Amino acid sequence: MKLEVLIIALLTLSILLAGCVSDVTPIDAEYDSNEREAILVTEMQQIDDALVNGPVLLKIGAEWCPPCTQLDPVLDELARDYEGRASIMYIDTEHTPVLAGKFKYYSIPDTTIIAGIEDGNYLFMRYDCVIDTSRNKARVMGYVDKSVLETILDHAIDYHSNMTE
Question: Are 121 and 132 in contact (CB under 8 A)?
Fold first, then answer.
C-alpha cells in the first residue's frame, strides 16, 4: 500500500514539473529581466486594446520556470522586431493567477498568437495558418525557437491586415 502511494505521488510530481524541465538554450547571463520589451499583462483589457493595432503574441509563464525565463529574451527580441505590427505580451501566473486561469493553461510556458476578436471570442492563429477559436489547437508549449513564433506571427499579421482593409 505504501509503495502504491509513493508511486502515485512520484507520478503526480513528475507530471506537474514536466513543463518546467528543459535542456535547451541556456539562459543568457547578460540578459536583464527587469528591462523587458514584452508587455506584462495585468488586465484582459490590455490584450483587447492591443488587438486594435495588430495581433498579440501572449506567453503564460512564471519567473521560477526555467523554460519560461529562457523564452523571455526571445520574446523581447520579437517585441523589437515586430514593433508597430504586433504586440508581444506575457502573463505571470504568480502575479495574476486569475487572469492566467482565464486562458485555461495546464503547463508553462504556454504561448499563443491572438489574431483578432470575433463575436467577443479571441481568434487564435495556428502554425498551419488556420484561424481557430480554440486556443488548445493553436498553443505552443514549452521553449520554442524564435523562427516558429515568427512564422505564426507573420501569418497573423497577414490575417489582421486583410481583416482591416
Answer: no
